[in-house]
Amino acid sequence: MTDLRPTIETPRLRLRPFALSDAPRVQQLAGHPDVAATTAYVPHPYPDGAAEEWIGEHAENYQRGYAVQFAIVLKTTDELIGCIDLVDISKVHRKAELGYWIGVPYWRHGYCSEAASALVAYGFEQLHLNKITARHMTANPASGRVMRNAQLKHEGTLRQEFYKGNRYFDIEVYGVLREDFQRR
Asked: How many structural domains comprise the chain?
């Protein structure tokens, strides 16, 4: 079966499908304690075999229309630096949720904002979505800046929405509508 998953180019980045050969790098970057501490679903320590299992689900997720996951790589070096995706894609409601993580050595370079802006555009222009949402732990304000840079607006706070590491976390919810995206 031919893999029809897209690749997206930005000025500095290439968003491409993950390959199984990316698994060691995913485990290395996502397994950093600071990445796990700033994301709701990335575990620490990152279990052996988990990256391979996760990557192995991507093609089917895309083919079924449930999700599209991208490796974020630097154009100049082809170095994998993180992940960005649209998940929980609903064809009925024409919406999806944006998610991402970036390896610690690549924080504060604008890479995540660049990738997020490109994926929001892809969601509206290629997937014909009406709304894209995103959520971040209140304890991770940098993620909120990424969302605002990608034109998402704060929609509210979900108190004690997520339980991780023996404590509850508040979650900030952001969203952007197709009409807002088209106006910019």
From this structure: 1
